[in-house]
Amino acid sequence: MAEIFVNGGKATFDKPKIELHVHLDGAIRIETILDVAKRRGIALPATTVSEMTSLCTVDKPGSLTEFLDKFNQYMHVIAGDREAIKRIAYEFVETKAKEGVIYVEVRYSPHLMANCDVEPIQWNQEKGDVTPDEVVHLVNEGLKEGEKAFKIKARSILCCMRHMPSWSMEVFELCKKYQNDGVVAIDLAGNESINCEASLHSKAYEEAEKSGIHRTVHAGEVGLPSVVREAVELLKAERIGHGYHTILDEVLYKQLLEQNMHFETCPVSSKLTGACEPDFTKHPIIRFKEDKANYSLNTDDPMIFNTTLESDYQTVKQYMGFTEEEFMRLNINAAKSSFLPEKEKKDLLNQLYEAYGMINDTNF
Ligand SMILES: [Zn+2]
């Protein structure tokens, strides 16, 4: 594989990577938003890339609520537009390929990009004819075309939203419908600090488990360890989105280490959303590293943080003492914890072993 260059320089970890936690609607190109707005005749408060970037991004620590408010700046441009939905999925794969990612699981809420069969219709859109089901179909098309063009593998995860339990059963049904067509799991996203009623989503998760659909849950990002416990015990989560605050409950943390629970960590995100203390040298990810926990490094919402995956790798190398060996270990764990079928997972792992010079070494 060719060397991976980022912003003109060699990447911090110049080898194939796996990304498991990134939101499609938080990973759109600013240029695309401006372009689509122009085509659709939607007036935006900014007309240049730099103006629009400052409206859509956060560059210093704030609250999760402030962060979520950024989506209001641009989601009405993309939502409900077939061409735009497919395009952002395609461009997403291109971006990831450039970052040296060989396998990515990208997540989104089908309801947040629809303008029909969704109650209430989001982002002050007029009622249209793009249903959540069609959103999934369009994203799948964009991802598949991107896979072909950029020679990497992309799968998707459909998100339930904490504040919209009425959508969750349909999210499960869409996961089931597209189970053999690109969708690998169900997620629970949104603001865990304002509404932590996980039980309202438990039916969808129960059905997902019965249907062999994989499960991840955003928990312990800004929320307490109890949210993580609930995700594992009630929702039967196989992976935890973020999970930093798990370490505040030593008993739970130890239990999850023993279970080899996977934590989808997002270093830059955790600082800018105010989920963790801004001092990276005291970050919970350091504890995960020291304990040889099972975790991955991810961007979460690179458009809103104005970052690439390189930013996260650079951050942990600079402030948390990450080594090349740890980067390899965590990517292998990410591949092992991916939601691919066993055979494809094995192939992915072999690709990594080969690229990392670890052929025949399956005991790493
Ligand atoms: Zn997330």
Automatic annotation (TrEMBL):
SUPFAM superfamilies found in the cross-reference section: Metallo-dependent hydrolases (SSF51556)
GO terms of molecular function: adenosine deaminase activity; metal ion binding
Gene3D superfamilies (UniProt xref): Metal-dependent hydrolases
Main location: other
Localisation per UniProt entry: Cell junction; Cell membrane; Cytoplasmic vesicle lumen; Lysosome
InterPro entries recorded: A/AMP_deam_AS, A_deaminase, A_deaminase_dom, Ado/ade_deaminase, Metal_Hydrolase
Transmembrane segments: none
Catalyses which reaction(s): 2'-deoxyadenosine + H2O + H(+) = 2'-deoxyinosine + NH4(+); adenosine + H2O + H(+) = inosine + NH4(+)
EC number of the protein: 3.5.4.4
GO BP terms, alphabetized: adenosine catabolic process; hypoxanthine salvage; inosine biosynthetic process; negative regulation of adenosine receptor signaling pathway; nucleotide metabolic process; purine ribonucleoside monophosphate biosynthetic process; T cell activation
Keyword line: Cell junction, Cell membrane, Cytoplasm, Cytoplasmic vesicle, Hydrolase, Lysosome, Membrane, Metal-binding, Nucleotide metabolism, Zinc
Membrane topology type: Peripheral membrane protein
Cofactors that this protein relies on: Zn(2+)
Top class in the EC scheme: hydrolase
Record GO cellular component, one term: lysosome
Domain Adenosine deaminase: 16-354
Xref: PANTHER family: ADENOSINE DEAMINASE (PTHR11409)
Family according to the record: Belongs to the metallo-dependent hydrolases superfamily. Adenosine and AMP deaminases family.
NCBIfam families: aden_deam
UniProt-listed HAMAP family: A_deaminase
Protein name, as recorded: Adenosine deaminase
Species of provenance: Hemibagrus wyckioides
